[in-house]
Amino acid sequence: MEIHQVRGHLTLTSRLDGLGHLPVKVLDSISGATLVAMDPIGVKPGDWVFTIANSAARSAAGDDRLLTDLTVAGIIDGWQTDKDESTNIL
Amino acid sequence: MEIHQVRGHLTLTSRLDGLGHLPVKVLDSISGATLVAMDPIGVKPGDWVFTIANSAARSAAGDDRLLTDLTVAGIIDGWQTDKDESTNIL
Amino acid sequence: MEIHQVRGHLTLTSRLDGLGHLPVKVLDSISGATLVAMDPIGVKPGDWVFTIANSAARSAAGDDRLLTDLTVAGIIDGWQTDKDESTNIL
Amino acid sequence: MEIHQVRGHLTLTSRLDGLGHLPVKVLDSISGATLVAMDPIGVKPGDWVFTIANSAARSAAGDDRLLTDLTVAGIIDGWQTDKDESTNIL
Amino acid sequence: MEIHQVRGHLTLTSRLDGLGHLPVKVLDSISGATLVAMDPIGVKPGDWVFTIANSAARSAAGDDRLLTDLTVAGIIDGWQTDKDESTNIL
Question: Residue C73: helix, strand or coil by DSSP?
């Protein structure tokens, strides 16, 4: 899975029916890439999130028939090391 | 999913039958890559689009037997942030 | 799908049976990568081709049991823009 | 599969149910990337590990319904060459 | 598929059962990446090999239940162009 910051949501003038009704978000990856993901959670611009790719992305969107290769799976709060030092995001 | 601008369509002198009859387009990705995708929507050179990769690309093309790993899934108009500022494309 | 120029075919001293009897070609990708693909079409060194990756690559090779993650799917002649200007390759 | 060093575990404020109860770890890849993986082994910060991606990642997590595209599969101790020289990690 | 040179085999202190009993090798890719692959052929350090990724990697390992996303599929001897000039490796 990869880590990204949410930039905003896409406005589409034409879209395939199979995309369903979940919002589609633009993400800035920590690798420098700009990606698009389905969002079943309801994330906001500025949120740090992680995404799941490929076949598991369809399950993550809640229906294996949905057309997606990248889905938001969680909002990141920070991380901890063995020393119990909590770091607030990245 | 990834964001690209449409460059044009491919002319092929030899192609596998399993590609079906959808047009095949050349895309310039915002990551700098040049890619080829099936187009079930009918996009035009200059359009900004997003694509779906891998197994969902076959469903997106309308028939899971079609040979594709990248399919155009929508035309992008712009995006909005929480502040309701709409940005016209990228 | 990605665009490549054919460099030549591989000579192998040991190979898995599941590779079948299709030729295996070395390709120079326009992204700069050197890749190996199955060739069900019979492409020649210098040809510009496009390839299909992952699960669709197995179908493209003609038998879903074949061991491949990249298969040549067509020979590229050029492309056209909306203005009907045809460009001869890349 | 790819090689990474474990940085720590993620704290999430919102997560999909399908992620199950395995810990989710942040990894520094030797390629320079920062990735997130499910951890069925119980690795510690500083451990060198290798991961399995995509569909096999779900099986590696112990249940094909789990939502993951990257799972820790083993802890690396070092490697040996033909000359029986053992190298302690990377 | 991609081309790599074999560096050595991995020694693991902890591994998932689903990895089975095939050796796990460290490969230096011609793209510059360092990767890990299952080896059903028995390749040696210094050998040039090509690998198969993702779902076909599991079949290539001999059992679709094995946990792998990259499997060695053949040892490369060299390649030929149309002019019948044989080049000894890369």
Answer: strand
Given a contact as 3+ CB pairs under 8 Å, which chains touch E?
A: C, D
Instruction: Determine the residue type at B53.
Output: A
* Count of structural domains within chain B: 1
**Chains B & C: contacts with CB separation below 8 Å:** 88
Range of the structural domain that residue B53 is part of: 2-78
Examine residue C39 and state whether it is found in any structural domain, yes or no.
Answer: yes
The answer to whether position C83 is within a domain reads no
Q: Do C79 and B26 touch (CB under 8 A)?
A: yes
> Is residue A67 situated within a structural domain?
yes
Cβ–Cβ below 8 Å for E16 and D60: yes
Residue whose C-alpha is closest to residue C67's, from C14, C9, C20, C11: C20
User: pLDDT averaged over consecutive 10-residue blocks of chain B (90 residues)?
Assistant: 96 93 95 96 96 96 96 90 52
**Residue C83 buriedness (CB in 10 A; 0-12 / 13-18 / 19+):** exposed
From chain E, pick out residues whose CB is under 8 angstroms from the CB of C31. Answer: none
Q: What's the complex ipTM?
A: 0.91
In a domain, D47, yes or no: yes
Percentage with pLDDT > 70 across chain A: 89
Mean pLDDT, each 10-residue run in order, chain E (90 residues): 96 93 95 96 96 96 96 90 52
